[in-house]
Write a structure and sequence with these properties.
This protein is α/β, with parallel strands linked by helices. The protein has a single domain (about 30-350), classed as Alpha-Beta Barrel (TIM Barrel). Helices cover about 40% and strands about 10% of the residues. Strand 5, helix 4 (about 140-155) and strand 6 form a beta-alpha-beta unit. The chain starts with a helix and ends in a 9-residue tail after the last helix. Mean pLDDT is about 85; it is low at about 1-55.
Length: about 350
């Protein structure tokens, strides 16, 4: 074989191997192969691959180098059970807690009381925790936002908040209900300026938004001095918010999913009378194959797609089960349910099978 021919063959082999490696490995933890092949979106996790052995890591790293636990505990809708559930979640190993100022859905003060009592008892320190709150649109005027933030600090018994989000881009249009705002409540542009001020003062460690559409995220990106660290939106197997996740991946912003178990469907679609996630045959089959719960399968699927998750429950057994996703405790590195490429594909294929209205 002449040297030139050998060199060409060698280069082709090297090129093929490089293409293969780029296909199955992680680029700085930012992007994974999506089994649809058209959705290569992933948040900025340290470990985010379909092809590792389950040694997954506990944290995502935000673009300001702040670490946030991948698996958090959501406190929406817990009502008078909030205090008890937060303490049970801490006992199970959760250290990331998601709350909000909207007392229509959240009990921020109970979250703070539970955390404070655990600290007083020596279970943990404030530095062990990652605490999130959200600003209601009715508080978007700068003075109201800053006052509401001080109230949040008092509620949470803390001198700072790890992450604060704008809860919605605006108030609900019907003028009634829990999303109602008075006139002149302020725009999210003004509210973002105030969040940037709190961030510069060190009173919050990261800032972001929730329930924003992609066009609003584009406006925010162009407008902001401090770029958002986190976007939190509705995400479940039937509503995978692909466009927003792609935006986050392209802008190095962490995507967090709420209502990952499908609870939103019974609220937004009157024709859906029971949670479609728990009754889905695909999810049931995969859960049975692993000997795990549907909750654990869905959480593992979300994490393997690079999505941070904040499952909520008022049932102690379910809280412990969710924590056990990381081999019995969220303080270990390994997922107890690690899905195959084929299983990821099956779940991802459920996207869009239900109508949102």
């Amino acid at each position: 074989m002449v040297p030139e021919t050998f060199l060409v063959i060698k280069c082709i082999r090297i090129l093929w191997w490089g293409i293969f490696l780029s296909y199955v490995t992680v680029c700085n933890g930012k992007e994974i192969l999506d089994v649809k092949n058209e959705d290569k979106t992933c948040a900025i996790g340290k470990t985010c691959s379909l092809y590792n052995t389950g040694d997954f890591g506990l944290f995502y790293t935000l673009h300001n180098s702040l670490e946030m636990e991948k698996l958090g505990f959501g406190t929406a809708g817990l009502g008078e059970n909030t205090y008890r559930c937060v303490r049970q979640a801490i006992a199970a190993g959760f250290r990331h807690f998601d709350s909000a100022q909207a007392d229509e859905w959240y009990q921020e003060a109970q979250v703070g009381s539970a955390i404070n009592d655990e600290i007083l008892e020596g279970t943990l320190t404030r530095g062990d925790l990652f605490v999130v709150t959200k600003v209601h649109p009715r508080n978007f005027r700068k003075e109201k936002l800053l006052n509401a933030f001080e109230t949040s600090l008092k509620n949470l018994r803390s001198e700072y908040v790890d992450l604060i989000l704008l809860h919605y881009a605006g108030c609900w249009p019907d003028g009634t209900g829990p999303g109602f705002c008075p006139e002149n409540s302020g725009s999210w542009f003004v509210a973002w300026d105030a969040l940037e001020e709190l961030y510069q003062q060190g009173k919050v460690k990261a800032i972001g938004v929730s329930n924003f559409e992609v066009d609003q995220l584009d406006q925010l990106w162009d407008y902001s001095k401090t770029k958002p660290h986190v976007v939190q939106n509705w995400f479940d197997p039937f509503h995978q918010d692909e466009e927003t996740r792609r935006w986050c991946s392209n802008h190095n912003v962490l995507y967090t999913g709420y209502s990952t178990f499908g609870s939103q469907w019974v609220y937004i679609n009157p024709d859906i009378r029971s949670n479609p996630v728990f009754g889905n045959p695909v999810l049931r089959k995969i859960a049975k194959a692993h000997g795990k719960t549907i909750n654990q399968v869905v959480l593992s699927w979300a994490l393997q797609k690079g999505v941070a998750v904040i499952p909520s429950s008022s049932n102690e057994r379910h809280i412990q089960s969710n924590a056990a996703l990381f081999h019995g405790n969220v303080n270990t590195n390994q997922l107890s349910v690690f899905l195959s490429e084929e299983e990821i594909f099956e779940i991802t294929s459920l996207d869009g099978q239900l109508e949102t209205d």
